[in-house]
Amino acid sequence: MSAVREPIRQARRIVIKVGTRVATESDNAFSSGVIGSLVRQIAAHMEPPSSRSFIIVSSGAIALGLNRLGMVSRPRELDLLQAAAAVGQSRLMHAYEHEFEAVKKETAQILLTSEDIRGRTRYLNIRNTIFTLWSFGAVPIVNENDTVSFDEIRFGDNDIISAHIANMLDADLLVILTDTDGVFDMNPKTHAEARVLRTVEKVTDVLLAGAEGKGSSFSSGGMESKIRAADIATRSGVGVVIARGEGLDLGGILEGREIGTWFVPSVRRMKGRKKWMAFNPRTDGAIVVDRGAERALLKQGRSLLPAGVKGVRGAFAMGGVVSILDEEGHEVARGLSNFSSEELEKIRGLNTKKIPEVLGAEAYFDEVVHRDNLVIIAPRE
User: Fold this and answer.
1) Where are the beta strands (DSSP E) in the chain?
2) 20 to 30 A from 149, CA-CA: which of 86, 132, 188, 353?
3) Residue range 145-158, pLDDT digits in tens
4) CATH says 283-376 is which class?
5) At the topology level of CATH, where does 3-272 sit?
6) pTM (two decimals)
């Protein structure tokens, strides 16, 4: 066992993301051999003494649908993709149900769009539903709701969904299964000497730049999206393993063996509402702050006051999730605004005591964003 992977041994809530090329064969038929093996391993670790809880985020619906519709390449047209998803999703769930029935485990289908994560009420409802399913010993199967989603409400791929699900559930581990042995130090397709990175302490812009590119012609992700998902998860304290799905040794991963690439989680775990704010798929607007306010937020742990606000971007209501930007436009924090964008335009740059004079006596908030409703966004290197 690798000492650096010791936290994996304690993992009890585990999210497993299955990529399209893992869930399907080269002809886009369901890969029953690979998924059957995965299901049997999951079932074994759900029993005592492990008694772990699992949730699967699975791609493959569009590929299965294209197979049934006789299409040999992934189309660009949204209506064709949505039609394929409609055909393939039921077949994907049926295939998972068949495999889990063989090990006497129940499954449940959950389809998401980014709006389900963005809205706090929906977010909590989904979280509670999953916990209830776990209490019955069921394994939820999650996928993006491709049939109804469009650009404005899409995640874009299931890698990012898996990271949000891991954060939502306060998971201990996210395992992203793909068709490679992990993250390489260079492109293995063009460099025979490429080696798997066994440990990544922190996701950097350099690492992301080296992983740019899409996956197969039937998938929507690629290694870049997997690393971005790992970045989201590890920043909130969830460890991530990216590994090959075919021939998977799940037990070996859970024992801390050097399988795939291990992304070390942040020591400090974000909690509840702050985690939801930090990794929300979208914000309602932005607030630009001056150097003094930036220093107060980042170095002194203060709330954001009107005096430090230089500009307001977008239209948002009181209580909206806003990005807090420095003077160069870099996001340094996120929070819940105590004022609407219209109100904030009127009081930006003013001393707190001036707020009632401008907005009326009922304007009782001193802070634009209170420290309790604010989370710092650490920059990548």
Assistant:
1) 13-18, 53-58, 107-112, 139-144, 173-178, 199-200, 239-244, 261-263, 285-289, 309-313, 321-325, 331-336, 374-376
2) 132
3) 877 766 554 666 89
4) mainly beta
5) Carbamate kinase (3.40.1160)
6) 0.88
